[in-house]
Amino acid sequence: MVSEAFLEHVLKKYRWIIVIFILLPLTLLYDIYYYVRQQVIQYLKDTNQDHQDKVKLVQSQVRDWIKTDQSKPMCTGRAGWKSMTLREPKYKSTMYPVDLEALDAILSIDEAKKTVRVEPYVTMGQLTRYLLPKGWTIPVVIELDDVTVGGIVVGQGLESSSHKYGMFQNNCISYELVLSDGSLVSCSKDNESDLFHVIPWSYGTLGFLTAIEIQIIPVKKYVQLQYVALKTLPDLEHHLKKEAENKANDFVEAIMFSKDQSVLMIGTFCDIPDPSKMNPIGRWYKPWFFEHVRSFITRKKYAEEYIPILDYYHRYTKALFWEIRDIVSFGNHPLFRFLLGWLMPPKVSLLKLTQTQTIKNLYDKHHVVEDYLVPMTQLRSIVDYFHHNIEVYPMWICPFLLKDLPGLVHPENAEDTLYVDLGLYGEPKAEGYHSKKTISALETYLGKLRGFQMLYAGVYQSKEEFRVNYDHSLYDRVRSKLDCNHAFPVIYDKVNRVVRD
Ligand SMILES: Cc1cc2nc3c(=O)[nH]c(=O)nc-3n(C[C@H](O)[C@H](O)[C@H](O)COP(=O)(O)OP(=O)(O)OC[C@H]3O[C@@H](n4cnc5c(N)ncnc54)[C@H](O)[C@@H]3O)c2cc1C
Ligand SMILES: NC(=O)C1=CN([C@@H]2O[C@H](COP(=O)(O)OP(=O)(O)OC[C@H]3O[C@@H](n4cnc5c(N)ncnc54)[C@H](OP(=O)(O)O)[C@@H]3O)[C@@H](O)[C@H]2O)C=CC1
Ligand SMILES: CC(C)=CCC[C@@H](C)[C@H]1CC[C@H]2C3=C(CC[C@]12C)[C@@]1(C)CC[C@H](O)C[C@@H]1CC3
After folding, report:
1. 451 CB under 6 A from ligand 2?
2. Are 57 and 182 part of one and the same domain?
3. Distance CA 449, CA 380 (A)
4. Which of 222, 311, 358, 460 has the highest CB neighbour count under 10 A?
C-alpha cells in the first residue's frame, strides 16, 4: 500500500505538471474569452439598460425565495472554488443560492464628478485596465487581478496606498442593493447612512450588492519606488511609521524576509521617469517581485526605480505574493520566465478547483494564509509573537488608516488610527505550530491588542467572542430594520472555521 506521507509528497512535488500542461493553457483560454466578452459588452451593449435587466433578475430570484418556506437563508450562487480564498465556503450547500454572476460590467465613468460605477463582479484587473488609459485610478487598487469589487466591499480590502486613503470601502461613494423583500435601495453617507456604514465586513448578510460607485483620482504613468533595506525590527517600525504618516508618499509597504531583515518600499506617482532607472517589473521575463525586493538586502541598502503604474499595481499577481513558489518551485528560473513567464500565474480558481483532498489537507495542516490587522503601536509585539509561534517569512507589512466611522470595525479611540496589516502566507516553521491551537490562541491575543483579522480566512473564535471583537451594535439594528433574520445568515455563520474549511 502506498503510504499517505508518500502520496502527499508526490502530489505536492509534482503538482506543477498539472499546472503547466493543463491549468496554464486553460487560464489563457479563459482570459481570451473573458477579454473578448468584456469588449463586446462595453462597446455593443447599452450597459445601463442591461444593468437594470440584470437587477430585475436578482429581484425576481429574491421574490421566488420569499415564496418558499424561508427555512434556508440566501447567499450568492457563486461557486466556492471561484472565490479568492484558501477555504471552501461550505455554508453554501445549505443555503438558497441567488445568481448574480452576470453582474460583471463597468457601468459608467463620470469624470466631472470623479466617480466610476461598477457591478460587483468586476475584477481589479478589469477595472485598472479600463481606468488607467483614461488617466484615472481608484485610490486603493487591490493587488491581485482576480479579486472582485463586491467581495472586497462586503469583505475588506487594503493596499500600499491605504496609509493615505484607508480601506477600499472608505473610497466608495454609494452602494445599490437588493434587500430581503426584493426591493432595490441605494445608500451613501447621506442617505440610509446606517446601512452604508455597516456594509463593509458584513459578508453579504444584509442584501445583494448590485452596483458600487467608487471615487476616482488622477493617475500618473509611473511610480518612483524607493527600496530601503533595514536590519532590525525597531528600525522597520520607526521608518514605516514615519513614512506612513507622510501623506506626500503615495505608496508605503514593507516585506520582512526574517525578523531582522526587511525592505521598506516608498512610492510616489510620477510622469517623467529617469530612463536609466526604469524597471517594467510586470514583463513576462522579469523576476518575481518579492525576489527582486529581497535582492536589495544583499545588493544595496538603498535603491530607486521607476515602475510603470500597471506593473506596480499588479506586482504581486504573477507570484500570488509568494505562494506560487510552493507549486512551481522553478517558476523564477530565467529560462522558465523567458519561455512561459507570460502565461503565469494559473488562475487561483482553477488551482482551487483541481486541488485534491490530500493537497487541501496539506494546506490546512502545514500552511497559513491569514492577514492580521493591529495598531501600528503593536507592530513589535505582534511580530515577536508571530516569530515565536508561527514563523512565516516573507511577511507582508502594509500600513493603513483605520477610519473612525460607524460599523463593524473601528478604532478603540474615537479618531482615525494608523494600523498595519501583517500578511502571513506560507509554511510555518515555528516548533510546536499547530494549525488550530496556534491560530485560536493568536485570535485571543489579537483581541487583546485591539486587532482584527481579515475574515476571508475564517475564524476559530466562538460566536460570543466574535461579537465582542467586531462591534455588532449598528449591524444588529440594521438587520432587524431590514428584516434580514430569515433571509440572510449572520456574519459569524459565514466566517467560522466549521463552515469555512
Ligand atoms: C526611510 C529611508 C529613506 C531613505 N532615503 C534615501 C534617499 O532618498 N536617498 C539615498 O541615497 N538614500 C536613502 N536612504 C538610504 C540611506 O541613506 C542609507 O541607508 C544610508 O546612507 C546607509 O548608511 P549606513 O550604512 O552608514 O547606515 P546603516 O547601518 O544602514 O543605518 C544606521 C541607522 O540609520 C538609519 N538610517 C539610515 N538611513 C536613514 C535615513 N535616510 N533616514 C533615517 N534613518 C536612516 C538606519 O535605519 C539605521 O537605524 C534612505 C533610508 C531610509 C531608512
Ligand atoms: N489586498 C486585499 O485586501 C485582498 C483581500 N482579499 C479578500 O479576499 C476576499 C475574496 O474576494 P472575492 O473572491 O472577490 O469574493 P468572494 O466571492 O470570496 O466573496 C466574499 C464575500 O462577499 C460576498 N459577496 C460577494 N459579492 C456579493 C454581492 N454582490 N452581494 C452580496 N454579497 C456579496 C460573498 O457572499 P456569499 O458568501 O453569499 O457568496 C462572500 O461572503 C475578499 O473578501 C477580500 O477581503 C483577497 C486578496 C487581496
Ligand atoms: C493581500 C491580502 C489581504 C490577501 C492575499 C491573499 C492571497 C495570498 C491568497 C488569497 C487566495 C489564496 C489561495 C492560494 C494561495 C494564497 C492566496 C492567493 C492557493 C493558490 C494556494 C494553493 C491551493 O491549492 C489553492 C489556493 C487558492 C487560494
Report:
1. no
2. yes
3. 12
4. 222
Phi, psi of 197 (to 5 degrees): -75, -20
| Cα 28 to chain centroid, rounded | 22
Q: Dihedral sign for Cα 380, 384, 390, 393, please.
A: positive
Q: Quick one: which ligand is closest to 230's CA?
A: 1
Please report whether residue 36 resides in a domain. Answer: no
Res 491 pLDDT > 80: yes
User: Closest residue (by CA) to atom 25 of ligand 1?
Assistant: 301
Q: pLDDT (tens digit, 9 = 90+) per residue, 402-432?
A: 999 999 999 988 899 999 999 999 999 999 9
Q: Is the pLDDT of residue 101 over 70?
A: yes
Residues 69 and 165 in one domain: yes
Going by CA atoms, what residue is nearest to atom 9 of ligand 3?
A: 85
> What pTM was estimated for this model as a whole?
0.92
CA of 154 to the centre of ligand 2 (A): 7
- The residue contributing the CA closest to ligand 1 atom 13 is 302
Looking at the chain, the whole-number percentage of residues with pLDDT higher than 90 is: 87
CA atoms of 181 and 59, how far apart (whole Å): 9
User: What three-state secondary structure class fits 71?
Assistant: coil
Last residue of a domain, one of 168, 183, 218: 218
- Closest ligand, as measured to the CA of 268: 1
Buried residues in 386-417 as b, exposed as e (16+ CB within 10 A): bbebbbbbbbbbbbbbbbebebbbbbeeeeeb
Q: How far apart are CA 260 and CA 135, in angstroms?
A: 40
Q: What is the ipTM of this complex?
A: 0.85
84 in a domain, yes or no?
yes
Residue 453 in any domain: the answer is yes
**Do 305 and 395 sit in the same domain of this protein?**
no
Residue 381 lies in a domain: yes
Instruction: Tell me the pLDDT tens digit for each residue of 284-334.
Output: 999 999 999 999 998 778 999 999 999 999 999 999 999 999 999 999 999
Domain assignment of residue 363, given as a range: 358-467+491-499
Domain count, the chain: 3
Same domain, 365 and 306: no
Report d(CA 378, CA 192) in Å as an integer.
Answer: 35
